[in-house]
Write a structure and sequence with these properties.
By secondary structure, the chain is an alpha+beta fold. The protein is built from 3 helices and 5 strands. The chain is elongated.
Length: 165
């Protein structure tokens, strides 16, 4: 089955992308990576004769792969053009799902404050809590600190307090 998947993947890769990498994955399937389009396609055996599970997903920053967004079972006896059409449809679904949705609310541009790394979203404020910038030592922390000092003082007194010399 792997030989048939590999041949099909090589043909599909040539039709879909000029620049691609084809390799075997752990489960016995074949992966086609298109680094320039930041997408991947996987062909995996399904247990049925001449059938394969076709999955598609994104390649994230750093080269790691995101989980499959879409998948479909295909017949490997269909021609390469039919399989390429199915792959293009799955890749279009992945591209549509990868578009970031606009974030509602005011923009943080121009506001003074803490700088964030690019691409990181702001944390949502929890209701009933102070903002993170105004931290003060809580009464519970003062109590713990006082207990530690008392234990340390009692230990020092037990060592040096008995003998006045």
């Amino acid at each position: 089955m792997y030989a048939q998947l590999r041949e099909t993947a090589d043909e599909l890769a040539g039709v879909l992308w000029r620049e691609h990498t084809v390799y075997r994955e752990r489960g016995g399937g074949v992966v086609i990576r298109g680094e320039h389009v930041r997408r991947w396609i996987s062909l995996a055996p399904t247990g049925g004769k001449d059938r394969a599970l076709l999955r598609a997903g994104r390649i994230l920053d750093g080269g790691t792969t995101a989980p499959a967004r879409t998948e479909v079972v295909v017949d490997l006896t269909a021609g390469t053009t039919e399989l390429a059409a199915v792959c293009r449809r799955l890749l279009a679904d992945v591209a549509a799902a990868a578009e970031p949705a606009p974030v509602p609310g005011p923009s943080r541009a121009g506001r003074p404050g803490k700088k964030r790394k690019p691409g990181r979203a702001a944390r949502a404020a929890r209701p009933g809590r102070r903002p993170r910038g105004e931290r003060h030592t809580s009464p519970g922390s003062w109590f713990v600190l006082l207990c530690v000092v008392a234990v340390l003082g009692a230990w020092l007194y037990s060592l040096f307090g008995r003998y006045p010399y």
